[in-house]
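Students often ask why we bother encoding 3D structure as a string. The short answer is that it lets us treat folding as translation between two languages. Here is a chain of 292 residues written in the first language.
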Amino acid sequence: MRYSSDWQDFQVVASGGGEKLEKWGNFYLLRPDPQAIWAPKFDFSTFRMLHGKYIRSQSGGGNWEFRKTLPDEWLVGYKNLKFIISPTSFKHTGLFPEQAVNWDKVTDVIKERIKNGEAPRVLNLFGYTGGATVAAAMAGATVTHVDASKGMMDVCRRNVELNNIPHDRVRYIVDDCTKFVAREIRREKQYDAIIMDPPSFGRGANGEVWKIEQHLDPLVELCCQVLSDKPLFFLVNSYTTGLQPTVIKNILKRNLDKIVRKKCTIDSYEIGVPTLEEIILPAGCSAFTEFK
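And here it is in the second language, the structure alphabet:
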């Protein structure tokens, strides 16, 4: 299990009963978490400082019940990075804090390459609001950020601007990720590093259906074809319940063995968030390929 203990503006206060009580900056939110199946130590809904609770609907989706005045959005920081937080209608806040452990790894590897005078080109697929994009660009990489949601792309732009990253360091593409990579192959475009954080299920800009069990392997195969002859890393993250880290490692290994003639190490691991209860709340898994 990998996690970051360096968050100051985010904490999981308590967990259990299918929920997690979180502190985002100065605000407390209660959200569902299917992994937290253990019994809670207390009734979270009675927490006096609670600002908002997300309530699932039996027909799907859900809504927020706000108990105290809450701004439409606010900022949190992680090390030298800043991000916009805003509760959405689908329970998210615009940031996945468990990814900080991967931001740290991406930052370290990029800075090591830059020591040799080379700014790596990074492709971030399913980039959401740009957590990894901001981390990579702040480290000195140029990033192509791809996501099917224009709304999420707009937040990514604002996160990039918030961190005073030069405008020419990030390229924004609203598109279906698979179609975009296929076009990049035809254009003979190459990248030194790839990051992808696919959902379990989703739809592209034109209604394309994404199912991770069916489409992750062929997408990784496509992505291997846009890796440069001096690849740096390939990071895949997944939140899909039941998908083991070794599954992602196997997908990367089989496809890289077919296409990339470069020695590499693939490190696969669970990721999570430490809680004030002194336990780790699991939050998916990742596999990080580093090329030698």
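Translate back mentally: The radius of gyration is 19 Å. Keep this in mind for the problem set.
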